[in-house]
Amino acid sequence: MSCKGHHPERMCVVCRERFPKEELTRFVPPEETNEPDFRPVPDPAMTRPGRGYYVCDQARCRERFPKMIAGLMKKRAR
Asked: What is the pLDDT of residues 31-41, one digit of tens each?
């Protein structure tokens, strides 16, 4: 069965609004990191493995995301 009209949605980790997945930028952990406080890197193709962080194109979300990373990382480590 195919869902021709289905478009996956994701939530911006900053504003918590839902958007079509293709309208967001996905950030993932760097490929090789053993550091506990790494900085996520963009994944423009949205194909890298692992859980990603999605951020919308609103200027305030882009500005706040780098400041939120530490808190997001702590939540995922639990």
From this structure: 776 665 678 89
* DSSP 8-state class, residue 13: T
Instruction: Sort 37 into a burial class: Cβ within 10 Å, 0-12 / 13-18 / 19+.
Output: exposed
Sign of CA dihedral 42, 46, 50, 56: positive
DSSP 5: T
pTM for this entry: 0.77
The DSSP secondary-structure symbol of 27 reads: E
Task: Give the Cα separation of 78 and 70 in Å (integer).
Answer: 13
Is residue 25 within 8 A of residue 55, CB to CB? The reply is yes
- Give the burial class of 56: count Cβ atoms within 10 A of its Cβ; 0-12 exposed, 13-18 middle, 19 or more buried: buried
